[in-house]
Design goal:
The protein is of the alpha+beta class. The protein is about 15% helix and about 30% strand. It has helices at about 50-60, 80, 165-175; strands at about 10-15, 20, 25-30, 30-35, 40-45, 70, 90-95, 95-100, 105, 115, 120, 130-135, 140-145, 180-185, 190. It is globular. It starts with 10 loop residues before the first strand and ends in a 7-residue tail after the last strand.
């Protein structure tokens, strides 16, 4: 059985491509927009050089912060969550709950479907609370994997991962379900044999 969603009606845009700089403190999240029907989803609205790096590309799509219905946080590190407050009307999804206004609704992320084309799965490794959003699109399944991969080139051994075997198991699970991976701090890349393990 595959984790891939059955639906194939989602579409996505990478609003800003993140980075990590090995020679300095700079870090920015890859922030994505995914839509399926009436669901307008932002994934990992984290640290960026300026909020216009998120809101500008969103405006080019004809959308403002008030149009966003859902935010998915792959995990709770500040570099992936810093700008969640931009989307005050949205439901916020993490590994164990959905949050909106003053409402906190417990639910396990594993297998939770926002729509038939948008499914959350647990993918611990970078942190124990990691989740991945699998989006079924017309071109295949796109995995918004947070820091399960930082960039297309790794790192293979995540320096903050508590257990590389757990990280590897989650990477293999995502690779089995996806055609494309959107990492936490870099451009999208194919979910094939070239993906760091």
């Amino acid at each position: 059985m595959t984790d891939a969603p059955l639906g194939r009606s989602a579409v996505y845009t990478i609003l800003t491509t993140g980075y990590t700089l090995s020679t300095g403190p700079g870090v920015a999240a890859t922030v994505s927009y995914v839509s399926d029907g009436e669901h307008h989803v932002i994934v990992d609205p984290g640290m960026v050089a300026g909020r216009d790096r998120i809101l500008g590309p969103l405006a080019e799509l004809g959308l403002g912060p008030e149009d966003i219905t859902d935010v998915v946080l792959s995990h709770h590190h500040p570099d992936n969550t810093m700008n969640v407050g931009l989307f005050g009307r949205a439901r916020v999804h993490d590994h164990h709950a959905v949050y909106r206004d003053d409402q906190w609704t417990d639910r396990d992320a594993e297998g939770h479907e926002l729509t038939p084309s948008l499914r959350l799965i647990r993918t611990p490794g970078h942190s124990p609370q990691d989740i991945t959003l699998l989006a079924g699109t017309g071109a295949g399944v796109v995995a918004f994997a947070g820091d399960l991969w930082w960039r297309p080139d790794g790192p293979v051994a995540d320096p903050v991962a508590p257990d590389h075997d757990v990280l590897l198991a989650s990477r293999l699970r995502v690779l089995a379900a996806a055609d494309v991976i959107v990492p936490g701090h870099g451009p999208a890349f194919p979910a094939d044999a070239s993906a760091p393990r």
